[in-house]
User: What shape does this take?
Amino acid sequence: MSQNSRSASNALVRLAVYGGVTAITALATFMSTPLLIRLLGIEGFGIWSLLEPMILVASATALLGSEHGTIKQTAHDGRDIRRVLGAALPFVFLLIAVVGVSTAGLTVRSFVNDPGLAIIIGILVGTEAMLLLATTAARAADRPLGYAIGQGGRATLFLASLATALAVLPLMADTVEKALLIRLAATGMAATMALCLLRPKLHWAPAEFSDSVSYGISILITGFLAMVLETADRYVLGLHTDAATVGAYVVLVKLVAIMGQGITTPFMLWFPTERFRHLADPDGGQAFFGTMAFVLLTLLVAAVGSVHFLGPTIVSWLAPGIGADRGVLLALLASGALMGMSYPLNIGLLTPGRTWLNVAAGTGGTLACVLLLIVLVPRFGEQGAAVAKLLGVLTFVVLISVLSYRSHPITFPFGRMAWLIIFALGCGWVLGEALPAQDIVISVIKASTFCVIVAGAGQLLSGGRLVPRTFESRHAG
Assistant: This one.
């Protein structure tokens, strides 16, 4: 077997492993949501939905983008992951202490007047940061087992604990504080196991950590902006409605997130290292990047249609008594698909020295989203929040695509992409009119038919070369 064939096979194996782990994680997340709603009530779930993004933002802050630097230092610089991780940990420990204490203090002063809850949140920030660093390092070193133990292990442990509480002793997790303690235990165990598997060589290397941070800080800031773009709708909505309304809206957001975990997450876990490899292709990666963008779009379009048809049934199971506004759900699904496409369309802005341009795109999209939320939510409520989010994400994707093209020109098949979307919209409308009933059997038939038709259309528009062309372009060295 040639070197190129072995590389392509290894890439496919990594993608398959990440896909499998992501499927388990997505299923566990899917199952955790109704359990949380039943244990906490819709108002408690609304509070949980506001705390969760805050904890994730704080944990990412504690790393200063160094987790992105581990990918660059291993995939681009060729360094050993044990030394890369060992150089980061001493500094990360210090940052975790500072950010954890600061988050606890801010929680007491501005969010909830509960010192016990604040302490739990501060510790959870630290464990989430360690898990993020460990799982990213495992991806960077092409060790999917470490990622599986960290990410998949945390999700399944959390789910098992919630299910046990609901079945045996609901008082174990009937408050937000108790649910956070369960999350803390699951995260801590997963992070410890993932780090032990990687066996980092601790050493004091300020220059190495500085290099890691200098590469990753722009991506971190962009991630913060993306987090605002993803979560600002629930906070602005919360200013004009009650916690129950926010909780009902976030149920739809969680449904869209499950779609993202199932399709976009495996891609974004696998794509960064492959991106570095294919930049050295003889054609600059034109064949690979163009094909991958079309493949991902096909998958996302099929998922959007399927979840749109199945959404009301799924929501009624997740949160009995809560209806699914189809217009809100469709806008959120479209924004989720657009955000997913920002990854394959961004080729030039992850090169060292260019990462700061991600911040410009993120700033534009976030400002557009927040301004639209301020204008639309007071008048239109949930509908206004969903539309504002969609337009903000669209602004972000357009900006990042344009800036990426200026840094590393790739001609994507936008014409074929547009035809695929138009065809899918028409197909969805026809199926909805032909089978108007909303029971589970009809919904499954519509979703399945839509997936098959979109997959066939994607194959035809690509000339039947999607799979062969995905990995055929390889740098010979």
